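From the shared-data thread, chain only:
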Amino acid sequence: MLNALALQLIAIAHATVIDPGAGSTRPDMMVLVRGTRIESVGASRSIRIPVGTRVIDATGKFLIPGLWDMHVHTDVPGGRALLGLFVANGVTGVRDMDGDIGRLRAFQRDIAAGSLAGPRMVVSGPYLAGQRVPLPHILVRTPEEAVTGVDSLARLRVDFVKVHNGMPPAAYFAVAREARRRKMVFAGHVFPPVTPLQASDSGQRSLEHLSGFPNVCAGDDSTVIAGATPLQRFLFGDCTREEQGPTFARLAANHTWITPTLIVQTEVANPGVVPNDSLLHYFGDSLQALWRLVMPPPPPTVPPAATAAGARLFEKRLALVKALHTAGVPILVGTDAPLRASPPGFAVHDELALLVRAGLPPLEALRAATSNPASYFAATDSLGSVTVGRVADLVLLDANPLTDISNTRRISAVIANGRVYDSPARLGLLNEAQRAARR
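Structure, as tokens:
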């Protein structure tokens, strides 16, 4: 593992370079990485390889920018040991949506120093919530507490403000005003009676989980959905027959971002089947106990009506994502890792597949995990493309993700902040996470 973490001069030769933001595909390219940055990109025959360079033969392979997971929680039991799973799966950046700011900053320092394998991190610290929850938070129930809460986060120098459930509208709008006054980005949940449109108009930069959005229903939808469980109704929302086009157009005009986290919703849509149960060996007992607090497990027997309702509601959520995308609302890949259905890193590939299932072309899904996060952070000068001067966060694939999005799983090597993780190094990260879960 120490060799994997060492910085080297690297040449990736004869790769087909995919830049999702530009929509370009360039065959037989050479990418030269020096330190943590991309030094040159050009035709393989035109770039001289300096003596002592580590050369990676990428003939027949495809090079993409590193993937981002824009909704994670790393400050959880065993969270430090799980960070390597992101890198092993080509996820070189994450937006952390809650946690102790001291622990999160320590993760960042160790990752930057190369003593810990993990993604680059943008972090919120404790979120603002209107109810007590088993995660780091600041309780906000009044406008006065809202101002105090935002000011506390400003003193902690968080990267952004996260809002969670339960805040009365007056408190929420006070958070929005104080965040705007302090020029702090705020993002997070939408919780009724606040609507997605009100959140967008208030300046909330991203809306998570599709919460607050109604389902456009017709025909027998209401009859089928009547069999939904309380958790399904809470997560998936109500029915409406109203045209949602004007709302979507306003969200697009406000440049509000959406992080659907569809993979988490699959667990609720079909309570009898949990995706990724084969990966439970990466999760220790303490983390699994936390899951049961945050998202109670389904009953041993799930009524057929709940299964039918969940399937119908999930298809509504897929249609919602397609409608938002068609209206020009920008989409971000997020997974809520590390929940049972969303193991770190692995779940990003599930989310990409679900975006394609929703109707996004593979290129648009790939943008949601690469160039879109760079635009969200106003960091296209350093992130999200295979371009000179950008940080060396790259994923080398054995097959073309633009023809089949599942090819993002076919990873040959990952370069995270200039450090190479080849197949043996990636396997080492997986094995270490599994060993840590058993301690």
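The chain has a mean pLDDT of 95.
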